[in-house]
Amino acid sequence: MIFLMLDYDGTLAPVVLNSARARIGREMKNVLSRLASRDDMGMAIISGRTLADLKSRVGLDSIYYAGCHGFEMEGPGWSYNHPQIKQVARQVDQLEKYLSGLLSGVKGCLIENKRYALTVHYRRVDKKLFPSVEKAARLAEKKSAGWMKMEPGRMIYEFKPSILWDKGRAVEMLLGLYQAYDPYPIYIGDDITDEPAFRYLRHSGLTALVENDERLQPTAAVLRLRSVNHVLQFLKSLL
Fold first, then answer.
1. Is the entire prediction scored with pTM above 0.70?
2. Distances from the Cα of 217 to the Cαs of 85, 166, 207, in angstroms?
3. pLDDT one-digit tens code per residue, 113-130
4. Distances (CA, A) of 3 to 39, 69, 104, 147, 238
5. CA angle 10, 173, 200 (to 5 degrees)
6. How many CB atoms lie under 10 A from the CB of residue 204?
7. CA distance 98 to 118
8. CA of 121: how far to CAs of 16, 22, 75, 86, 196, in Å?
9. Which of 67, 70, 92, 201 reaches 20 to 30 Å from 195, CA-CA?
10. Considering only CA atoms, which of 167, 160, 154, 215 is closest in space to residue 47?
């Protein structure tokens, strides 16, 4: 069987100025639904978004969801929360207050509290103010050292728990659920946070990076897709 794992933003849904408005297109949703209904196909959506947000946007009951980069996961008859994650929520709230003070004068900057992680979005910020956003993120990185780690992404700075966990480890756990079916994994993503999954699957599955001008670093993915539309065409080929 094939176990298909997909990022959300920039992979299934186009990246937009306001991340709250990032939605899967009707045709993409239809293709995902058809793939999820197949007996020889497993599926998981793996994202930095919260589990609840991710489930509400995709809306398929028969698949697996990994929110907050896999710190919280859920699927048919199964759920997982990293054992250390609950103690992180209070620190995230404190970090949000600190960053709010640093970035209060930066118009267009959005701080998203994901309960177990935090993201600073600066896609709508004037380019002249990008250095101010980076400075604030670096200061927050120092202040939260030891319990949070900061990773730059596609016009974001993402703060995640300093726990040995990432999308690669989430993929490993999800594949374990299908071990009896000898699954062939396919993973598609567009950002730096997908690299641990690409590396984990380097010699055992198919990995594809969705290319974009905001993601120029080297990748461990073996294939490149040029856009969300090309992801759609690839998924159609699996039907």
1. yes
2. 29, 18, 16
3. 988 889 999 999 999 999
4. 11, 18, 44, 33, 12
5. 60
6. 11
7. 12
8. 11, 14, 29, 24, 22
9. 92
10. 167
Say which residue the tokens 């065409």 belong to: 233
| Angstrom distances, CA of residue 208 to CA of 103, 217, 228 | 35, 14, 12
Q: Can you tell me which residue has the tokens 């054992």? A: 83
Superfamily, domain 2-82+165-237:
HAD superfamily/HAD-like (3.40.50.1000)
- CA–CA gap between residue 62 and residue 216 (Å, rounded): 35
Domain range annotation of the chain: 2-82+165-237, 88-161
Instruction: For the domain made up of 88-161, give the CATH fold.
Output: Alpha-Beta Plaits (3.30.70)
Length of the chain: 239
Query: What dihedral angle (degrees, nearest 10) is formed by the CA atoms of 97, 98, 101, 102?
Result: -150
